[in-house]
Amino acid sequence: MHVIHLSVECFPLAKVGGLADVVGALPRYQRKFGVDAWVVSPFYDKPFTKERQFQLVHGGTFTQGAETLAYEVLKEENDPLGFPLYLIRIPGKLDREEVYCYPDEAEQWIAFQHAFLRWISDTAIVPDVVNCHDHHVGLVPFLMKHATDFNHLADVKTLFTIHNGQYQGWMTWDKGSLLPAFDTWKWGLLDWDGLINPFAAAVKCCDAFSTVSEGYLKELFVQANGLERLFQMEADRGFGIINGIDDAYWNPELDTQIPKKYKKSSVKSGKKSNKKEFCDAAALDSNLPLLAFIGRFAQEKGADLLPDIITHIFSTLEDKICIFILGSGDEAVEEALQELQDRYPQRLATFIGYNEQLAHQVYAAADLLLMPSRVEPCGLNQLYAMKYGTVPVVHAVGGLKDTVIDVAAASGYGFLFQAPEAEAAAQSVVRAVETLKDPSVLQKIRQKAMSLDFSWDKSANKYIQLYDQL
């Protein structure tokens, strides 16, 4: 079976969020089970592309509105990711440093999708399945069925995988002239509430859609940023498949990015050693419980709650806890955290930005990981944390609710709170600190969390079963 994963993020080529981690791992695990899985992404002017050799495998031109665009398809020569990686370069559009935040983003993603279809059409590549990831490539299922130049691909099956339904790629109808020529009788498949909505178009036109957890699939029926009715109508084509993690990369026993490697049987000494070195560098007290947050400072992640959560925690626990924050985004959150760090210099440390090695070190050092997300389709941070014996404290939503069981249950290994509110989150942190101050309880919960299997093997097989079904 030949499957092409189409995505604008892929780790380590370009990473903004969990989408990159999924696309950078899932195809490799699928290849273990005999699937000829490729990844096709835009070309970025990043260290990954500068440090590797690429072979030009195809080139051509196409018209986008009043422009004639030239494109190249480049293949990484040595397959370091464990799967064939193809990058589409379009001078002036798909050759930039960043993934997002450009004013002509709609034009970029239309060009990416058009060039992809032009390439596989011109070279007679006919995959069994095109797995489209998120709205950036959401027009592909429509174009394969209804675009004049590409409807010979109508029988190729499409799976639309939803990593985050909050972002839908809305564009006004004046952008319609930029699309490849299509059957205009089908314009309604592109439309939602008077706008071209690539996300909605994908749900309407794909052969099936998947979400990255079963819990998130259920939530989309009642909270989908305006598309609740669509999901209710198309419910029979929806599937929930929990994300996995790359346990060769996120594994304290193998991790070369942390000072001290450890495994389940040595988690106590391993985490103590990593915590001591980390806290010394961050000017925090390694003898106190260490709570961490890693993520974007975005409302959906509950990051706007962080200042109030921290204030509540310190007012209750006083000098009984340290906190480390790794992330960036909302400037108001960044400023508020800096003010709190100035107020509590020995209890709170922040790193504004993202650093992959530092993230590994945080997971290895921290006792607790906080995730106050309002929306969390799957969540990977809690899975990474548990692999490193770090106990999650999470809002019971989406994939967090699917993957974390509260310690109140006999089989539990984490702490859940039911409302995305600062006081509720802080109370759960306090409950966690009080519960885990017993070393034997802490050790038991750590080992239970580290024993869980969230590897990609199970999830990759579920995707393959769905491909077979299509």
Automatic annotation (TrEMBL):
Molecular-function GO terms, alphabetical: alpha-1,4-glucan glucosyltransferase (ADP-glucose donor) activity; alpha-1,4-glucan glucosyltransferase (UDP-glucose donor) activity
UniProt protein name: Glycogen synthase
Pathway as given in its UniProt record: Glycan biosynthesis; glycogen biosynthesis
Keywords, comma-separated and alphabetical: Glycogen biosynthesis, Glycosyltransferase, Transferase
Entries under HAMAP family matching the protein: Glycogen_synth
Catalysed reactions, as listed in the record: [(1->4)-alpha-D-glucosyl](n) + ADP-alpha-D-glucose = [(1->4)-alpha-D-glucosyl](n+1) + ADP + H(+)
Any one Gene Ontology BP term: glycogen biosynthetic process
Organism field: Sphingobacterium paludis
Domain (Glycosyl transferase family) ranges: 281-435
Residues involved in ADP-alpha-D-glucose binding: 15
Family indicated by similarity: Belongs to the glycosyltransferase 1 family. Bacterial/plant glycogen synthase subfamily.
EC code(s) of this entry: 2.4.1.21
NCBIfam families: glgA
Domain Starch synthase catalytic: 2-231
Database matches in InterPro entries: Glyco_trans_1, GS/SS, Starch_synth_cat_dom
CDD domains documented for this protein: GT5_Glycogen_synthase_DULL1-like (cd03791)
Functional note: Synthesizes alpha-1,4-glucan chains using ADP-glucose.
